[in-house]
Write a structure and sequence with these properties.
Cytochrome p450, 3-stranded antiparallel sheet, globular, binds protoporphyrin IX containing FE, iron ion binding, iron, heme binding, Cyt_P450_sf
Length: about 450
């Protein structure tokens, strides 16, 4: 699995100079301290995430604006508001996957169907976020193409500015997504003006969002920018994490069996998020372990050393230096994790405090505000598919399996690539699975 900076960490350790004006850090303690520092700003690199030309929550380097935006949107990602969106999350998430999988099984010859879980989780995540952001359901394929294109567009833009003229064709889908969101905001305002009840979704959340300190609300353009951001930040990340979790469970059959034992025969109904939180610690631990071992946000987060500079492990980092935070290495750091390359969800059952050292959602003031929503989607989807279906690797997948080991002596994971998020190189080949009803 190619994760950025691992070789450099193995060669140079917790902190090293990357370029004349940047360093890279990988120690979870150092990372937490840096990200928790209220004077640490993001670097200019984040300008590429200004999808609409103006700053949004993820792109802004202005610490005050970021704080205000977190105060504005934070309450809508708390469990109380998310509970109001539960119907949408369940309908477009697990219920839609189950309908698709049940159909595939019904159409199969012997009650065993082959599905591609990476595609199915992606569509479900796209569909959930699109419905929450547009305020209405829309063709999932269209949304998926729009988001995928936009992420590709940003990825290319960030890597090779010179090929800009050649990526113009991607503009059109990007513009369609942008226009659709613009119109959705207008439609919602008309809906509200006509005196109809307020729906509970992210579109409404951003219209209502108010900074409790300044009482400032977002402008139309800012709401539009936030909606675009949520589509990008909240789809691939969530769906690929579920895919990595299923993949890892197939490679570690004893953990898969333990997950089955936790849910099988215990829930006559669709497992809800409150069921997960109250009764399914192992399923949750599997997700944390997947976030740790195969972090979808496995890249380097660039930050700027604050005014006056800072010390990291006795090294003085002058003000203005770019500090690259290496999340993937932090999640495998040998001083923090026993057998870091093993998929072992039990580590979180034995010591649930370890969850705080999983940095895949980042940490501190700029931590991911969508974490609760992501956990809601991921746990309900994972728990219910494990409850309702037998999952098995197809026999023709011979290059992956519990007995095909990597250099650390653990089952080899499918190849991955980093393109904003870390995703499988060949999902069409590697994310196939046989399903049958339990
Ligand atoms: C498994 C799922 C997810 C993971 C692993 C994840 C991870 C992250 C990480 C690492 C960051 C920090 C990025 C940086 O500083 O460069 C971040 C920021 C952010 N995420 Fe997530 N995320 C997930 C799901 C979501 C969802 C579902 C949403 C919303 C619908 C969301 C919205 C955001 C936003 C708005 C930010 C910007 C916060 C800021 O910069 O202040 N994320 N996420």
């Amino acid at each position: 699995m190619s994760r950025l900076g691992r070789h450099d960490f193995e060669k140079y350790g917790d902190i090293f100079v990357l370029t004349p004006d940047s360093v890279c850090i990988s120690n979870p303690g150092d990372i937490r301290a840096l990200l928790a520092n209220p004077t640490t700003a993001k670097s200019k690199y984040y300008n590429i995430l200004r999808f609409t030309g103006i700053d949004n929550t993820v792109s802004t380097q202005d610490i005050e604006l970021a704080n205000a935006r977190h105060r504005q949107i934070g309450p809508f990602f708390k469990p109380t508001y998310l509970a109001k969106m539960e119907g949408i999350i369940m309908k477009h998430g697990i219920e839609s996957i189950k309908a698709k999988w049940d159909r595939a099984i019904a159409e199969s010859a012997q009650g065993v169907a082959e599905v591609n879980y990476c595609n199915d989780f992606l569509f479900a995540a796209f569909d959930i976020i699109a419905t929450l952001v547009y305020g209405q359901q829309i063709d999932e394929l269209k949304t998926a193409q729009w988001i995928d294109t936009t992420l590709t567009y940003i990825g290319i833009r960030s890597m090779v500015q010179l090929v800009f003229p050649f990526i113009r064709p991607l503009d059109s889908r990007y513009n369609q997504l942008s226009n659709y969101i613009y119109n959705s905001i207008n439609q919602r305002r008309e809906h509200l003006a006509s005196g109809q009840p307020k729906p509970a979704d992210l579109l409404q959340a951003f219209i209502d969002a108010e900074d409790p300190e300044s009482k400032v609300q977002m402008s139309h353009d800012q709401i539009h920018g936030e909606c675009m951001l949520m589509m990008m930040a909240g789809s691939d990340t969530t769906s690929h994490t579920i895919s990595w979790t299923v993949h890892l469970l197939m490679l570690y059959p004893h953990h898969y069996q333990r997950a089955v034992d936790e849910v099988y025969g215990k829930f006559p109904h669709t497992i809800t998020y409150s069921d997960c939180r109250a009764h399914l610690p192992f399923i949750e631990a599997c997700i944390f372990e997947s976030l740790r071992l195969a972090p979808v946000t496995g890249g380097l987060l660039p930050r700027i050393a604050p005014k006056g500079g800072i010390y990291i492990q006795n090294h003085f980092i002058p003000e203005g230096t770019t500090i690259f935070v290496n999340l993937a290495v932090a999640n495998h750091h040998p001083a923090y994790w026993q057998n870091p390359h093993e998929f072992n969800p039990l580590r979180f059952i034995e010591n649930s405090d370890l969850k705080h050292n999983v940095l895949t959602f980042s940490h501190g003031r700029r931590t991911c505000p969508g974490k609760n929503l992501a956990m809601w989607e991921m746990t309900t989807i994972l728990a219910n598919i494990i409850k309702d279906y037998h999952l098995q690797l197809p026999p023709d997948i011979t290059h992956l399996g519990p007995h095909i080991l990597n250099k650390y002596g653990y089952p080899r994971q499918m190849d991955s690539q980093q393109y904003i998020v870390v995703k499988p190189v060949d999902a069409q080949r590697d994310c196939r699975i046989l399903i049958s009803k339990r």
